[in-house]
Amino acid sequence: VQLLESGGGLVQAGGSLRLSCRTSGDTFSRSTMGWFRQATGKDREFVAALRWMLDSSLYAESAKGRFTVDRSADRNTFYLQMNSLKPEDTAVYYCAARDAWAPLSDRASEYTTWGQGTQVTVSA
Question: What is the dihedral of CA 23, 25, 29, 31, to 10 degrees?
Fold first, then answer.
């Protein structure tokens, strides 16, 4: 397994969760990493991405001001801190990686490696 997500669960509206994506060794240390989500019956949508140099990030409008992406010092774990969660944030959240050196992107088709996902459920 190259990307392994964890940290999902059930939380009440207004609560917080921190998702983690652990990568295999240094394979993705120079990759832009992204978070996507897919709610039941809906298409997969972009949430946030972090450039491998940690110098820039990109957020979906729905995530701005509430979610933050970060990475461990060794670049082997990628995080999504989610605050002020809403019921509409309920989805399976996926971690994804672009090829090395690739820039930020909000397009799922440009990410070449995917995790299996972790369920986030926000109750009203």
Answer: -50
Q: What is the DSSP string of 38-86?
A: E-TTS--EEEEEE-TTSS-EEE-TTTTTTEEEEE-TTS-EEEEEE-S--
Spatial contact of 59 and 50, defined as CB atoms under 8 Å apart:
no
Average pLDDT for the chain: 94
Q: What's phi and psi for 87, nearest 5 deg?
A: -55, -30
Joined together, the tokens standing for residue 48 give 């946030």
For residues 91 and 120, the answer to whether their CB atoms sit within 8 Å is yes
pLDDT of residue 90: 98
pLDDT at 25 over 80: no
Residue 55 has pLDDT above 80, yes or no: no
